[in-house]
Structures are given as C-alpha cells and as structure tokens.
Design a protein that fits this description.
- By secondary structure, this protein is an alpha/beta fold.
- 33% of the residues lie in helices and 23% in strands.
- It has eleven helices and 14 strands.
- The strands form two sheets. An eight-stranded mixed beta sheet has the order 5-4-3-2-1-12-13-14.
- A hairpin with a 4-residue loop joins strand 3 and strand 4.
- The chain is globular.
- The N and C termini lie close together (11 Å).
- Its EC number is 3.1.3.-.
- Pfam families: Hydrolase_3 (PF08282).
- It comes from Anaerococcus groningensis.
C-alpha cells in the first residue's frame, strides 16, 4: 500500500504557465485525506513553494516539502527546515577559487536569503534571486560565521561562458560536489550526497515507510534519483526519455493533469500499485 507520494513541481505538478489544475488539487486532497503523506519535491527554495503548499492544503502535520533539489526538507506545518545536506562558506571559497579563470559569478543561497560577494551582481544573479523570492544580500565571505550553511551554490554567467565551463569542469569540483546545469546561464552546485532521492529516502526513514510504499512522479533528469527510491515510479507523458526508462507507469502530461490522473488511479485501486 502506498503511504507516501512525492511529486515534482515544474513540468509535473503545474502547467507550463505554472498553474495548478483543479484535477490535480482535488486528487491530492483526496490522497491526503486518505492518510497518505504528500511531499512536493523541487529545485525551488521553500519561499517559491509556500504558495503551492497552502493552495494544496498541505500545510498540515505529516506533509513535507523537499527544496533545492534535496538540500532542505521542510515540515509544512511549521514551515521550518527539519533536515538536509548543506555546504559551508569554505565550500563557497573553494568553488570561487576553482573558477577564477572563468567570467562567471558565484553566489549561494539558504532558505532565507540569496548571497553574493559582488558589489554589482550580474543580471543572472538578480533574476534568479527574484525568481527564488529571496532577498539578495551583498556579503563578503569573511562576514559569514563558521557554522553558516547553504543549500546551493550557484555559478552564473553568459551562455557561451557557461558552455565553456561545463565542458571543462574542474575535477576537484565534480569529484567533491554534485554539479548540474539547470539553465543556459546557471550551474547549481550542491553537497555530494544531495539529490531528491537522498532526501526522499531520509524522509521515508523518519516516517518508518519502506521504499515499496512510496509513489514518485516526475519529468526531468533530476527526478531520476527520486523515482529510483520509489516502489512505484510514475513518469509524465512530457518527461525526458531518460526518466521514462525508470518508470513503472507513464501518466498524462502536465497539460492534461497527469499528476491527478495517476493519483486517482491509485485511489481507485485502494492505494495499491497498478
């Protein structure tokens, strides 16, 4: 029996215009009322997820949000992080030094702010901070306390320079961190252990839920670790081919409320895999 459903957001739960459909809302509400734990899982920070949490009535005990590709797990009732895998100011300095020969800017973020050492942040940094709905703070590395933690370190610059960097990533960076290109102007760097699957596994352990009792729904490459941790893996019709090979079921697209469709089938099957 499925006891936990984990759902990616962009490209999965919401439409291309970032809207929630009535079908998806209704199905998630039914599953939650049936006693199933619901966890949204996204690359977004919690500040960019809170409105969805409230609209889906997931701001209740037993429901969670995985943010920044697994860097943070938030309790939706308290709106506070309960665990995660982090990085330090030392990591920030190391990565900045590794990339000194590239025309890029290095920033970092936690669940409260977006940080840059540059007195004149580039346009990509400003845009990403705005999208993340976090205040942009200009801060010297020496101003951070030794126990400061970050969910993500971000490398941003023009597409041509980012392409050059991605083809020539320093070995010390790829060996010691989890780096993934998520936009033409952005490479995200996280703790080596960080991904959605790791976070889902940690959450399930705390809830005393086995892998076979997890249903995961996604559409992108960064959702693959999450589907690998699920006993029942669901791919969207609009998912990338690499993810579909990990799926037990292909649902409808995000334009056709594929999340709601998959969950309704689960409910009709008494919460058993189909």
């Amino acid at each position: 029996m499925i006891k936990l459903i984990t759902i990616d957001v962009d490209g999965t739960l919401v439409t291309p215009l970032k809207r929630l459909t009535k079908t998806n809302i209704t199905a998630i509400n039914k599953a939650r009322d049936a006693g199933v734990h619901i966890a949204l899982a996204s690359g977004r920070p919690y500040s960019g997820m809170k409105a969805l949490v409230n609209k889906l009535n997931l701001n209740q005990e037993g429901n969670f949000t995985v943010c920044q590709n697994g860097s943070y797990i938030f309790d939706n009732l308290t709106h506070q992080p309960i665990s995660g895998t982090y990085q330090s100011p030392t990591d920030l300095k190391i990565i900045d030094d590794l990339l000194k020969d590239y025309n890029v800017q290095i920033s970092a973020m936690d669940h409260k702010s977006f940080y840059s050492r540059h007195t004149n942040p580039n346009i990509y940094t400003k845009i990403d901070a705005k999208i993340s709905k976090l205040p942009l703070e200009i801060k010297s590395y020496d101003d951070f306390s030794d126990d400061k933690t970050f969910g993500r370190i971000l490398i941003m610059g023009k597409k041509s320079e980012m392409d050059r960097l991605y083809k020539n990533m320093p070995k010390d960076l790829t060996d010691n961190y989890y780096a993934v290109k998520t936009a033409p102007f952005l490479i995200e760097v996280m703790n080596k252990n960080t991904n959605k699957g790791y976070a889902i596994s940690a959450m399930a352990k705390d809830l005393k839920i086995s892998q076979d009792e997890i249903m995961s729904i996604g559409n992108e490459r960064n959702d693959i670790p999450m589907l690998e941790q699920a006993g029942f893996a669901v791919a969207m019709a609009n998912a990338v081919p690499e993810l579909k090979t990990h799926a037990d079921f292909i649902t409808k697209s995000n334009m056709q409320s594929g999340v709601g469709y998959a969950i309704e089938k689960l409910l009709a099957n008494n919460l058993e895999k189909y």
